[in-house]
Amino acid sequence: MPGTVRRAPFGFPAFRMALTFSARAIVLRTRQLGEKDRILTLLSPDHGRFSAVAKGARNPKGKQAATSQPFVLARFLIAPGRSLHVASQSQIEDAHIHICGDLVRTAWASYICEMCDATPESHPDSELFDALEQALAALNEPESMPEQLETAAAWFQIRFLHILGYEPTIGRCVVSGQKITVDPADTTTKIAFSPALGGTLSASEVSRDPDRLTASVTALRAMHTLGRAKAPPRVLKLTPAARRDLRELLRRQIVVHLDARLKSQKFLDDILAANW
């Protein structure tokens, strides 16, 4: 109708949309800016990873204080800027309150969010966003035990490697293609694995990587199972030794392919050492 102003998200008039955009995003991390503001690093399925200033977010009574916290899933109204965007308005979809209230959950969430923070800026990837959203939801389950939390985080790491094109080869030699056969009932055999080459190594090819790992067949089977799962499994029944092997396999691959050691790794190690 004549004179009608089309409304944009959050009640903004349509003419403002030329300067702003709406982004459903997860807060990967925050840092202080001045005395009142925060810079948010956001991951969005449509806009990729980018940063935006949340004005007044450090004021506990500020309108954006609640949405300017790590691991929050929210919809933001973003005003583009020359050096930094501005998050002019926001609405929480899921604050993941159980993550923030628990050190083990926080440690795993910090680790997987830092992995996403290491990806290139402004490269939309809905698959990566969906995987992080599912993993955070699993970490936020209030009744989950530590083994279930680690399973969710391990699933995300495998998905992350797959999405970036680094999913490991398991069951065949990554160098020769030779099938590596182990009896299904065997849970003790150790197999060489090369994070740098991207998979298991046959006995004749172990010399290809002096920095190879040796992991239990149980841990490698768990990695294979996680790689085929479309969502975080409830839990994988692993011995403590197999769990440590799986953790080290994933950690080394992340370090190799991101070419960086994550700052949250020490925090995660300290928390796990105190809780296992």
Strand coverage percent: 15-25%
How is the biggest beta sheet arranged? 5 strands, mixed, barrel
Q: Judging from the principal axes of the Cα atoms, what is the shape?
A: elongated
Q: How do the helices and strands follow one another from N- to C-terminus? A: EEEEEHHHHEEEHHH
| Quantity of strands, as a count | 8
- What is the CATH homology-level superfamily of the largest domain? Recombination protein O, C-terminal domain
Give unreliable regions as ranges: 1-18
The total of helices stands at 7
Q: Cα distance, first to last residue?
A: 65 Å
| CATH class descriptor of the largest domain | Mainly Alpha
Within the largest sheet, what's the order of strands?
1-2-3-5-4
Summing up helix and strand content along with how strands pair, one would put the structural category as alpha+beta
> Gyration radius, to the nearest Å?
22 Å
What would the average pLDDT be, to the nearest integer? 91
CATH architecture classification of the largest domain: Up-down Bundle
How many discrete domains? 2
The percent of residues in helical segments reads: 25-40%
CATH fold annotation of the largest domain: de novo design (two linked rop proteins)
Structure in words:
This protein is of the alpha+beta class. It folds into two domains: 9-95, Beta Barrel (OB fold (Dihydrolipoamide Acetyltransferase, E2P)), CATH 2.40.50.140; 149-260, Recombination protein O, C-terminal domain (de novo design (two linked rop proteins)), CATH 1.20.1440. It has seven helices and eight strands, in the order βββββααααβββααα. It has helices at residues 97-100, 103-117, 126-139, 146-163, 217-228, 240-258, 264-275; strands at residues 21-33, 37-44, 48-54, 73-79, 85-94, 190-194, 199-201, 213-216. The strands form two sheets. It has a five-stranded mixed barrel with strand order 1-2-3-5-4. The chain has a three-stranded antiparallel sheet with strand order 7-6-8. A hairpin with a 4-residue loop joins β6 and β7. α2 (103-117) packs antiparallel against α3 and α2 runs antiparallel to α7 (264-275). It is elongated.
